[in-house]
Amino acid sequence: MNFAPVSTLADLETLEHEQIREGYRSAERGDPEPGPNRGRAFWHGWRNAMIDLGELPGDDASRSLAREYAAAQRQRATEGK
Predict the structure, then answer these.
(1) Whole-model pTM?
(2) What is the spatial distance between Cα 5 and Cα 1, in angstroms, rounded to a whole number?
């Protein structure tokens, strides 16, 4: 792994969202891990896609981020946003 996995929404917000989307869209089954030349945001998107595809196992970081995201969505729904 080239980068530290994203495990909080605060950390996610520091990343370039377009690069995350690009990394996610570019991931395909059997892809090698992107190198450090692609950046952490791209790598996070690629990693997320590979977890969604079942190519990589979920881990503590991905589960923590998912829990935080779900909690934030529930909070927004409660507040009517």
Answers:
(1) 0.90
(2) 9
**Interaxial angle between packed helices 60-79 and 40-52, expressed in degrees from 0 to 180 and rounded to the nearest 10:** 90
Per the rule left: phi > 0, alpha: psi between -120 and 50, beta: everything else, 58 is beta
For residue 53, give the DSSP letter: T
What pLDDT digit, counting tens, does each position of 6-57 carry? 999 999 999 999 999 999 999 999 999 999 899 999 999 999 999 999 999 9
8 close to 61: Cβ distance less than 8 angstroms: no
Q: Any residues with CB less than 8 A from the CB of 29 and at least 6 apart, and which?
A: 53, 55
Are 12 and 6 spatial neighbours (Cβ–Cβ below 8 Å)?
yes
